[in-house]
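Q: Two folds, back to back.
A: First:
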Amino acid sequence: MDTVAEIKMRLPIEQLVGQYCQLTKKGRNFVCLCPFHNDSHPSFLVSPDKGIGYCFACRSGGDIFSFYQAIEGVDFVAAVKELAERAGITLQRTSIPSVKKD
């Protein structure tokens, strides 16, 4: 298993988004006010099954890495390093990807 997949497996999207937003359960998904624009009605949907979050108002979203990059203002490599630490994964120098893998 590659590093990115292992981080995604250990750090579910709802756990990460829940650290920044107040999530409310809605069926199999969660909703919250979008952290990327001035939102008055919960328009940010988090899908644990798909491992993504998406705002239907401002059309921003993605996986844990793109969410973390947008909310923290970091690049992909920094997101991998910081999320690996949160997930309890020790990175080897050679395991840090230089380009985002989907």
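A: Second:
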Amino acid sequence: MNGAPATVQKGPEAAPETGGLVKGAARRTLENIRAGELGSWPIIIGLIFISAFFDYKNSNFLSGSNFGNLITQFVPLATIATGVVFVLLIAEIDLSVAFVSGFAGSVVVAEVVTRHGHLSGLLAIPIALAAGALYGMAQGVFVAYVGVPSFVVTLAGLLVAQGLVVKVVGSSPIYINDHWVLDLSSYRFTHQTSWIIAALVSVLYLLVVASGIVRRRWRGAETGNLWYALVKVVAVAGGMFVVVAWVNRARGGQGLPLAFVIMLVLYVFWTFIAMRTTFGRHVYAVGGNDEAARRAGINVPRIKLIVFMIAGMMAAFGGVMSASRSSSAVPGVGGDPLLMYAIASAVIGGTSLFGGRGHVRSAVLGALVIQMIANGCDLVGYSSATRFILTALILLGAVTLDTVARRRQAAAGR
């Protein structure tokens, strides 16, 4: 009896896993929700509701042309919010990102390519990113090594950046005519190239998932449900082809915007950094409990310094994308309500204000929600007051969900 075949014991457990994929996935999802792990479900449901509402009010909301415009509108905000996500993950705050984007991004690029030097955008963009990283480093030194609260440091940084914008730009816009900068938001791929991009993204994601399964099996680790992995690959591929088909419906033969590809590359890169590197694991550890992280041998000040540099650099890149879209650096660039929207994007997307929990996708999903509301309000004719109120209510709901989720997680011992 002790030598009974293993299949006798494994059979009853294996059958539901392979035969009830949908049922098993639904059960796991419900268990996670009860334990406070909400994932992206609230934001996805919100996106569906927002889309249905504004399409009901104006049928042009879901048109191919407006969808392409929506992509170019939300990418600058999502880029800035990506840096905010990293700062929130270490349980800090950066109030300067909006005006840093205005100065280090829009103003520096405009100055370099227009007023001084007349350099190519290929050189101006890296200079702007370096300026943003240096700005973030200066703030990070005070937070990480001097111990000044990040709220105070970045509030001072906000005022300095605002002063620099006022000083440099003055009362007249600085117009940009460099095609390298302008193409970041205006360039559209052809229909054929758009389909090729969708196919490449699908194949690359398939290879990433397959390589992960092979590595885990080679190490003798649990590979998980292969059918579930297949469903994820099909979902990503289907999503990409739907996006391309949707955008290709735009008038004038316009295809996928270059801004979408840029956002996709940034998303993959920073997701890899956050989830697959030692630095990323240290970021989550510091946000969860910085004292425990310090005792575990993590250089907490260095992690904080690098995170503020990332926030500054991504703010600058968002400023570059914004300058590309408006073709200029205007007086007051980086002002209200950009700061509120950048932080709200990260929080609405699911990043915790208490640190240690969140993903890069939070920035993308949250920025998409905010920009869809702004875009829909403009199409329908709602006032800016209505847009602000709707955004505030969604932000409050997101923070409330986060607070309730943390309580459930504590009760579940997670």
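Q: And?
A: Residues 105 and 115 are 15 Å apart (CA to CA).
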